[in-house]
Design brief:
The chain is α/β, with parallel strands linked by helices. It contains nine helices and 41 strands. The protein folds into two domains: 222 residues, Spore Coat Polysaccharide Biosynthesis Protein SpsA, Chain A (Alpha-Beta Complex); 195 residues, Hexapeptide repeat proteins (UDP N-Acetylglucosamine Acyltransferase, domain 1, 3 Solenoid), CATH 2.160.10.
Length: 468
């Protein structure tokens, strides 16, 4: 049945995602545990999508609502494994919706999130070239304890998969293990799933038994060795999750650097898988960039900056220990140090937000500056505004939030208190220490503070009285 020219058949994919993952000791099912900022199953579905399958079925069970929510994307179908009776039973649940699908079926697992599209494509291609009924993905482990061993015939085809507990000393010496990912001829898989029996201590149906049945009947079983053992790490506990996290983050940092960004100290930089970083940007040690953040070109992200689900425009500097979340920062802005921008805020080109300034649900116009100890909440701030140190918008009356609107080219003096709802017209000045409680017309000056009075000699008299 060997062929060097056979083309892959139409492909369906079944993702086994019904397990509970008890050893993770979590309230949430295993497939939704997060790896490099995204659910485990999201990584698996991304790898699968590169194969352009005709059908994708995710088998859900424990915590199915959470798994479905994490897996929902165009082209993904769901099948329910009502009771968890093993991988064979789960595969049967996943194959059911495919009906009389003619082609190949890739079976993979939600808890093997590091396998790449390239490896899955190579598995499928080998399956076609060998004309196999089944093809197994394997890996070489330095310590294969606990894993099923791959026993090959002289031809290279799989002769058996023997579980560790059942293996002789000679078989245990084999370092090639079963990764639990398979490509099957659809008709072959359906036929042998129907023959599975729960003849084991757990009274479960094992997908590996399909391989044994194929070998028994002379159906060729091929095997592809993954390029690295790290690709097929399974997640069964928090220790394995941490190891997978390390590998996934290394991959992401490598991708970012190869795309043209500089990481001063990659090992101390945390970047989620969904992040993109533009060319010639520099990221300093301790920076954390999470979610679906986008960093533009020629940006500088300072030490210990925290950026999540944010867009940073070209040429912008985010200085040390600043936080930017769920917001959009324009081009050539300067943020920080120690500033906090959050909750759907937006800055236009050339904005400067300085130390210990907080911005929330606020739009800031081009070239505006708020450099020190300022709070701008629920505000619309125009172009070319100077916001003095210590200024705050009082946006909350104890029950509701209210909006402040500051026009273009305004000057807001230090320690101004703007009580919302408030309207300050274009080109207006607000004197230092003023409490704004009424609209300020365009081009006017608002001053609202007590007149200074001088009591000559008062301080010296007090010192004499107190003996200091």
């Amino acid at each position: 049945m060997h062929s060097d020219t056979a083309s892959p058949k139409p492909l369906a994919v079944v993702v086994l995602a019904a397990g509970e993952g008890k050893r993770l000791k979590s309230r949430h099912p295993k497939p939704v545990q997060r790896l490099c900022g995204r659910p485990l199953i999201d990584h698996v579905l991304d790898a699968i999508s590169g194969l352009d399958p005709a059908r994708t079925v995710v088998v859900v069970g424990v915590g199915k609502e959470e798994v479905i929510a994490a897996s929902s994307r165009p082209g993904v179908e769901f099948a329910v494994q009502e009771r968890q009776f093993g991988t064979g039973d789960a595969a049967k649940a996943g194959v059911g919706p495919l009906g009389d699908f003619a082609g190949d079926i890739l079976v993979t697992c939600a808890d093997t999130p590091l396998v790449t599209t390239e490896t899955l494509a190579a598995l499928r291609d080998l399956h076609a070239r060998q004309g196999a009924g089944a093809t197994v993905l394997t890996a070489i482990f330095d310590d294969p304890t606990g894993y099923g061993r791959i026993v090959r015939a002289e031809s290279g085809l799989v002769q058996a998969i023997i579980e560790h507990k059942d293996a002789s000393d000679e078989v245990r010496a084999i370092r090639e293990i079963n990764a639990g990912i398979y490509c099957f001829d659809a008709e072959t898989l359906s036929r042998y799933l129907a023959l599975l029996k729960p003849d084991n201590e757990q009274a479960e149906y094992y997908l590996t038994d399909v391989i044994g049945l194929c070998v028994r009947d002379g159906v060729p079983v091929a095997a592809l060795t993954a390029p690295s053992a790290g690709e097929v790490i399974g997640i069964n506990n928090r220790v394995q999750l941490a190891e997978a996290e390390r590998i996934a983050r290394d991959r992401t940092r490598t991708r970012v650097m190869l795309e043209g960004a500089t990481l001063i100290d990659p090992a101390s930089t945390f970047i989620d898988a969904g992040v993109t970083v533009g060319r010639d940007s520099v990221i300093w040690p301790g920076a954390m960039i999470f979610g679906d953040s986008v960093i533009g070109e020629e940006c500088e992200i300072g030490p210990h900056a925290y950026i999540k689900d944010a867009s940073i425009g070209d040429g912008t500097v985010v200085r040390q220990a600043s936080v930017v979340t769920d917001s959009i920062i324009g081009k050539r802005c300067q943020i920080g140090p120690f500033s906090h921008i959050r909750n759907d805020s937006r800055t236009e080109t050339g904005v400067r937000i300085g130390s210990y300034t907080e911005v929330v649900r606020t739009h800031i116009g081009e070239g505006t500056k708020a450099l020190h100890f300022t709070y701008l909440g629920d505000a619309e701030v125009g172009r070319g505004v100077n916001v003095g140190a210590g200024t705050i918008t009082c946006n909350y009356d104890g029950r509701r939030k209210h909006k402040t609107v500051i026009g273009d080219d305004c000057f807001i003096g230090s320690d101004a208190v703007i009580v919302a709802p408030a309207q300050i017209g274009d080109r207006a000045y607000v004197g230092a220490g003023t409490v704004v409680t009424a609209p300020v017309p365009a081009g006017s000056l608002a001053v609202g503070r007590a007149r200074q009075s001088i009591h000559e000699g008062w301080a010296d008299a007090r010192r004499e009285r107190d003996g200091i």
